[in-house]
Amino acid sequence: MIQGTGSGVGKSLIVVALCRIFNQMGVKVAPFKAQKLALNSYVTIEGGEIGRAQALQAMAAGIEPSIYINPILLKATGESGSQVILLGKVHSNMSAHEYYRFRDNAWPYVEDALQVLSAQYDLVLIEGAGSPAEINLMDVEIVNMAVARHTDSPVILVGDIDRGGVFASLYGTVALLPQDALRIKGFIINKFRGDRGILSSGIEMLSEKTGIPVLGVLPYVSGLRLPEEDGLGIDVYRRYRESPCNRPIKVTVLRLKYMSNFTDFDPFLYEPDVELSYSLRADEIINSDLIIIPGSKNTVSDLLFLRDNGIEAVLKKAVESGVSIAGICGGYQMLGSVLYDPLCVESHVKEITGLGYLDISTTFNRTKATRRVKAVLCKTPWGWAGISQGAEALSDLLGYEIHMGQSEGQMGLFKVSSIDGKHQYVEGSVKENVWGTYLHGIFENDCFRRLLINALRSRRKLPPLDVSVNYRQVMFESLDILVEIVKTHLDMEAIYGIVEKRRGRRCPPSDPSARGPVPLTP
To answer: Is residue 329 flagged as an active site residue?
Structure first.
C-alpha cells in the first residue's frame, strides 16, 4: 500500500509507475483505491463511474478499468455535500457528517471489491488518500490504515519535500500511528529539487528515529504528459515548456467553480499550434479562437457564477464577433435555452434561463447516464465547411458520458452507440458558431481534434496542418519516462523484497530477456 503524509504528495503517480513496472515484469497487477474524492472521473466498461486517476493506473497495469478498483467515489456538489457513488452507481448525496455515519454501510463495498481483485490478480497496489494520521477521523476512515489492516498490507509512506517540512511530516505521521507504525516498511521523499547529498544527514536521522528506511528520493519533474488528479494541478502544471508566442490558435476553457473532467482538454496541450488556458479574464475570452465551457458538478451554480461575474456578457460579445464556442456536458446544458430541475437534484432552483445559444432544453432527474460510446459526426459545425480531412475524423469517435440531465430540442450533432450495443441515439447540438455535446473524451480523437483546429486556422487564413499528435502514444511515452525516473531513484530491490515477503514468492526478474514464463497464480 502507498500512503502519503497529505494530499497531492504524489501517491497516485507512484502507484501508476509501480503498476507499469510490475506489469512489464509479467506480474498480473491491479490498482485499488477504496475511496476517492474527485471531480475528474471515468466510465468503465461496465458503465460505472470511477476516479480518473485509477483509470490511468489501470492503463499502466495493462488492464481494463473496472468499478472494483475504486468502489467508492465522492464528487463534491457544493460547499457542504458530495454525491456518493458506490461500485460505479449513484447512491445519494450526503453531507460530511452523514457520510461518516454511513461508514459501516460503505465498508462492505470496499471488502467486496478487494475480494474480487484478490481472486483475479497476483498483486494489488493500494493507494491511500490524504494522510493516515488524521487523528479526528481514524475511527471512521475506510481508505488508509483501515484498508492496510484488513488486507495485512505493508505500507510505503510518501512525503512531499517541495512543500517543506518533509522530515517532520514523515516522523509525525509515524508518531501519530502507534498501533500501525510497524506496517510502514519504507519512506519515499518526493519532488526534490537540488543536490541529494544535502539530505543525507536528515535521512540517516529519520531512519534512526523511526527504524524505517528511506527507499529513495524522487526528483521534482515537470512536463509529464499525464492527466492531473484534480483541479489543483491546473495552476502548477498547465504551463508550456516553450513559449506560446508561436502558437497562433488560442483555446480558452472557462474555469468554473465546480469544473469537472478538465482533463478533457489535455490533448490540446500537445498540439504545436495551440495555446490552452483556463481563465475567466474578459480579454483572454474575447481574444480566443475557441471558448470551451467545460463540465460541471453543479451546472446551475456555475451558470449563476458566470452570470454574476459578468462572463455571460463577455460570451455574448464573443459570439457576436464570430468566436467559436463549445460546451461539454454541463457546459452544453448551459448553452441551451432553459434548465429545469423539478426534483431539486442539483440545486434549489427549479427553473433557470440558459445562455440561449442552442435550441435545446435540459431537465435534471435522479437517473445518471454513465456509458462508454462511439460516435459519428453528423453535422458540420460552423466554420468547418471546406476543411478537408479523412473520413476517420468524422466516424468511429470514442468517448464517454457522465450526466444527470437529459436534453431535448434541435439535436443531432452526433449519432451515438453505446459500446455494449444497448443504446443508439443522436445527441449534441449546433447553431452557427456554437456547438455542444455530452461526449467527454471527444478531443482525445486525434483526427477530430485536428479537424477542429484546422477550422480555427482557416478563420485566421492559416493553412491546415496534418495530424501530428497521437495522444495515446504521448501518454505511454510519459508513462515510460515516469517508470525510468522511479527505477533510477528508488531502491527497487527493497521494494521487490517488500512485495515478495507479502506474496510469499519471488518476483520475476525485471529484465524481460532474463525470464522465462512466469507461473503465477492468484
So the answer is: yes
